Amino acid sequence: MKKYFIIALAALGFAACAEKISDGASPEQTGELEQSYIAINLMSSELDTRVNTDAPVLEDGEAAERKVNSVHFFFFRQGVPFAVNAAGSAPGGDRNWLYATTPGFSEDLDKDNISAYSNVMLVLKNYKGQYPDQIVAVINWTPDKNVYKLDELHAKLVGLQSNEGGFVMSNSVYKSGENVIDATAISKPYETAAEAESHPVDIYVERVAAKVKVSTPESTIEGKWDATNKWFDTGKTSNLTTLGESQNKVYVKIQNWSLYNARTQSMLLKSIDPTWTDDALGLTWNDSPRFRSYWAAADTYTDSPDDYINKNVFIWNDGTALGGVLYCGENTAPSAEDRTKLILKGQLVDADDKALELVKWNGQEMVKVENLKTAVAAQLQYLIYSYTDEADAKTYTSITDADIECISGANDGSPSDVEEYEVYFQLTTTAATKKWAIKTGDKWETKDAAHINAYLIEHVPAAIVYKSGQTYYYIDIKHLGTSEKDAEYGIIRNHIYDIEIQSIKGYGTPVFNPGGNIVVPETPIEEEGVYVAAKINVLSWRVVKQGVNIEVK
After folding, report:
1. Residues 351, 451 share a domain
2. What does R_g of the chain's alpha carbons equal in angstroms?
């Protein structure tokens, strides 16, 4: 015998004296009540695509990604909120949504998969002749006010998931004809449950989150590839005699990964523009036979952007292992700097797994910060001196490497002409207590420590330092659009971006302070730019599969 989760509704009209919900539909109150039924099937919008060989290949969600703890149904008539209330309540409905309680589902339905939510029977007790004609289902989210217009559901920012509450899902949004379908149409409710069961309303839902997966081939370098060490040949050879070895090939060992510019929230309902064209986007963006669309309007998040964009994620030991996944919100921001990026964190090593602390400065290449400071001091030894006064005579001593420290350009207060990936030079705290002078020809000019620090910034070129060999590579995550089209890059809800790192070439972007944050991922210099060759295959939740070759030329 089939079971139903019975939801009793009172869809209440309004008399002139009745309290109206904001912008709500106000059916004329006849005083005559009737009971009617709507059968609901909640369905994942990708389920039916398996029967069509031309459909995108799909991937089942994990159990946690399919879990349903609650459903709120939002009712509308001709796009206007339609007042509802629980059965037995007094007239004067003050909200346009109904909460479907978890206990009811657990008694009657299998909660493990959204596809199991069928034969949900909504029982409406309403004024005769007055019915809602649209419904929106929202899963695993609780409204924070009584009435929502459709455009408010589009604009409402929501978190993606919670460990206990499950992933947030909502009506799939797509184009049909010239219209945007963001709410499911309801025909006139039926007089009996049997009639409703024969004509169920299918509501297709999709997760508001996107999923990113990062993996590597099973092996690339014999003897240097196991479960915890993923080595790539950078294609670089170092000519440093300080390596003290006959071979000088440089490898990078990938340690973990994270996302930059990852949205921590999405809008509750996807926003699309029915005037988009496939040619402009570079993909077939609408798929009405499968109740889906594959692009979204750029977010309109304008308030407190740091509350929903995870920029400061580059703490060296805080990352996700290769083979792991991360979830993020929708992001179709058009500018390159605002795209969601994948960051790979690695360490430059030699063939014997020894970290290579590579340094580039003033046209020279060396290893270790100590050697860098020695080189800087050597350049300044006949120009900057510390001195002491003894018996009315000054004793001058050339600046040494012990007087100099390296400062990351990513620090607050760094000079504007020093890039975040560079380091500049300042006096150490101890050296700043000394007396200083600058010698020009035979002339001595006494200077305080602040003056010397300013001189170091202005006259000594900044350096690039891969502290302990630590580096990172980043790529803009591609979507389905073809090259140089509007939808070439982006993160769209209910898609999986499956990225396989196939090769890495070049040293990458240096990290001087592995325990700090990188505010903006950058490429050090143009000729070392990150080049990404991506092969994209569409699978799904929907999955975007991206094979990546990273080359720093």
Report:
1. no
2. 31
